[in-house]
Amino acid sequence: MKRFITFILLVPLCAFPQSRRIDSLRTVLANTGTDTAKCQIYYLLAIELLTMAPAEAEKVMAVSKRIAVKEGYNPGMAYVFSFNAIQANYKGDYAGSKNNAEKALAISLKYKLGPIEAIAKNTLGIYYWQTGNYAQAVEMHLAALKVRERLNDSVGISKSLGNLGQVYLDNEKYKEAEYYALQGLALCKKLKENYVTINCLHILANINAAQKKYQRALAFDREALPLCLADNNKRGLSQIYSNMANCYEAMNDLEKARQYQMKVLESDKYFESKKWISDTYLNIGRLFWREAKYEQATDWLNRSLELSVATDSKKGQRDAWKMLENVLEKRGKYKEALVAYQNYQAINEDIINEGNDKEIALMQTNYETQKKEQKITLLNRENTIQKLSIAKQKTTLGIVAGSAVALLGFAGLLYNRNQNKQKIILQDHKLEQRAELTRAVIEAEEKERTRIASDLHDGVGQLFSAVKMNLNGLIERVDMPRDEDRFLAEKTLALVEESCKEVRHISHQMMPNMLLKSGIASDVKSFIEKIDSEKLKVKVEANGFKDKLESNVETVLYRVIQEAVNNVIKHSRATLLNIKLDREATGISVAITDNGVGFDPAVAEASGGIGLKNITARVDYLKGTVDYRSAPGAGTSIKVWVPV
Fold first, then answer.
1. Do 435 and 566 fall within a single domain?
2. What's the CA gap between 119 and 125, in Å, rounded?
3. Quick one: 46 and 183 in the same domain?
4. Whole-angstrom Cα distance, residue 303 to residue 282?
5. Lowest-pLDDT choice from 30-34, 336-340, 485-489
6. Residue 406: what pLDDT?
C-alpha cells in the first residue's frame, strides 16, 4: 500500500524552517492590534502547527474562530472552514473535508480571497484523489495552480506541481508523475522550502518503488529524513518510514519492514488518523501473510477493514477485502474467502451480488443442519446404551462405537466434500467475475474508440480540411516569383493533404464505416483493401458467413484480426499474409499466417507484449482459444477458435 503526504499547507510563507516560521508568526501576532488581522495570523499559526502538534493547532484555531464570530468577520469563517477541511483530510474524514472545502471556496470567491481559494480547490483535488476520481482531482489541482500563478505564489505553485505528480502516481502514470514531481522539487529547493521538498522527494521515492527501483527509492527517502527531523515534521516522517518499510518488504527483508511499519503505526496513533492507522494495519497484515502467519494476518486485516469502513475509505476496504480473501483461502476457510472476494468485487466494481450471498447462506445452513442431525443420532445411540441390560452392554457398545466411527468418518467426508465444493465455487466465481470485467473493459474500449474516431473525423479532420482549403486559396491569390517559395508552399499543401488522409485512415481503423453492418467477412476485406498492396500482399478467404454473428462476437473478432494484422505490418517485415475465416456449426476458426521474420513466443510473453495480451484477452472473453506458432526466421501463424 503506497502512502502519500497530502499537500495542504497552501499558504505562501517565507522560506524558513517550520519552527522559525512559527516563532515569526507568534511575534507578528504579539504586535498586531486589530482583531481581524489576528484572526488570519491565528489561522496561519494553526496550519503550521497541524503537522507537528495537532491538539495545539485546534486550540489556536478555536481562538481564530471566536474572533471571526464575535466580530462578524465573514472572511474569517473562510479560514475556519479551510482549517477544518485540512484537518478532516488528515483524519481521513473525506466527506467532512469536501464539505468544509466547498464552504471555504464559496466565501473566498465572494470576498476575493485568492490564497484561500487555492487552498480550497487543492483540498477538493485531494478529496477526489482519495475517492478515486482522478480526472476531477487533476482538474481541481490545475485550477489551484492557475490561482497561484495569478498570485505569483511560488511556494504554492511548487505544492500544486507536487499534487499533480501525486495523482498521476496513484493512477500509475509514472512518466507524468515524475515530470510534475521533479518540477516541484526544483522549485521548492530553490525556495529552500523544506516541507514541500520533503513531499516531492517522497513522491519520487514512491514513483521509483512502484517501478521496483527500490534502492533509488530509499535514496530519495533518506534525503528527506534529515529535513523532517530538522523541522520536527512528524507527519512527513511517518510517510517516509512507510515507504521505506514497503521497499524493504519488496526486497524480502521482512524484519526490517515490520520495524518501520511499527514506527509508522506509532506516528499514526499520535495524529489519531483512522485512515492512516487502517493503512498501516493492512501493511502489517500483509507482512504476516507473507510469513504464512495467517491467524495474525487475519487479525490485523480485520482491524484495517473496521477503520476503513469507519472512514468510508473505499480503497482501504477494497485492499483489505482482497488481502483477506488470500489469507482465508490459505487457511482453508473457503466460505469466508468467497464472501471476502464478493465484497472486494462489490466495492471494486460497485456491484452487489445478493444472489451469491444467499447461496452462501444456504450452503452454511445445509452444512450446519447435517452436523446437528449427526449429533442427534449420536445422542440417541447413547440413550439406547443406557437402557440396555448389563449383559448386552458390551456388545451394543461395540456396535454403537462402530456406528459412531462410521458416522464421524461420514461427517469428515461430508466436510471435505463441502470444503472442496466451496473451493470450486470460489474459483468459478472468480472466473465469472474476470469474464465480466473483461467484457466491461472491451465494451468501454469500443465506446472510447467510437468517441475518438468521431472526434478525429468531425473535429481534427474538419480543421485540416479547412486549412487545406484556405491554404489552397492563399497560394492561388499570392504571387510567388521565386520557385523556392512556390515549391515550399506546394510541399506544405501536400503535407496538409496527406495529414487529412492519415486522420481519415486512423478514424476508419478505430471505427470502420461498415462495422456491424456488413458482417465480419466484409468488414475484414474492407480493412485489408486499405493496406498498401505493394508492400504487403494479403489474401482473405471466408467460408460459411451467410448470416451475421452476434454483435459482440463480430466486434471482438474484428479487433483480434485487426490487432494481428497491425502486428504483422509493424514487426514482421512480411511480404505475404493469408487470412482464413471458417464458420462451422460449433464455432469460428481464424487462421492468420505470414512469411515474416517470426519471433520467439516465450520471449514475447515474458516481455509483456501488449498486442499479444490484447488478442488473448479478447479471445478469452469469447471463451475461445488462441495458438501462436512462430520461430525466428520462420514466419508466424496465429490460430483462433471461438464457440458460437
1. no
2. 10
3. yes
4. 8
5. 485-489
6. 55
State the DSSP H helix or E strand holding residue 636, giving kind and residue range, or none if neither: strand 636-643
Q: Are residues 471 and 550 in the same domain?
A: no
Note the maximum CA span of the chain.
133
Higher pLDDT, 440 or 599: 599
Q: Which of 480, 486, 624, 484 is nearest to 552 (CA)?
A: 624
Given a cut of 50, whether residue 12 has pLDDT beyond it is no
Residues 100 and 207 in one domain: yes
Q: What is residue 118's three-state secondary structure?
A: helix
Q: Alpha helix (H) ranges present in 171-253? A: 174-191, 194-210, 214-231, 234-250
What is the secondary structure of 80-92 as a DSSP string? HHHHHHHHHHHTT
Question: Number of structural domains, the chain?
Answer: 4
Residue 573's Cα: distance from chain center in Å?
A: 37
Angle ∠(123,164,323) on CA atoms, nearest 5: 85
pLDDT at 148: 92
Beta pairing class for 576-583 and 537-543 = parallel
Q: Which residue is listed with cell 466484409? A: 522
Winning range, highest mean pLDDT, from 12-26, 41-55, 500-514: 41-55
Give the residue with greater pLDDT, 405 vs 313: 313
pLDDT tens column, 23-36: 888 888 888 878 88
Burial 614-644 (b: 16+ CB within 10 A, else e): bbbbbbbbbebebebebeeeebbebebbbee
Q: What is the mean pLDDT of residues 450-457?
A: 60
| C-alpha cell belonging to residue 554 | 463480430
* Burial tier of 82 (Cβ tally within 10 Å: 0-12, 13-18, 19+): buried
341-399 residue pLDDT tens: 888 877 776 433 333 333 333 333 343 344 344 444 444 454 444 544 444 455 544 55
Nearest one of 423, 5, 417 to 184, comparing CA atoms: 5
By residue range, what is the domain housing residue 481?
Answer: 463-510
Q: Which residues contact 123 (CB under 8 A, 6 or more apart)?
A: 8, 82, 85, 86, 89, 97, 101, 104
Residues 119 and 24 in one domain: yes
Which one of 170, 201, 222 terminates a domain?
Answer: 222
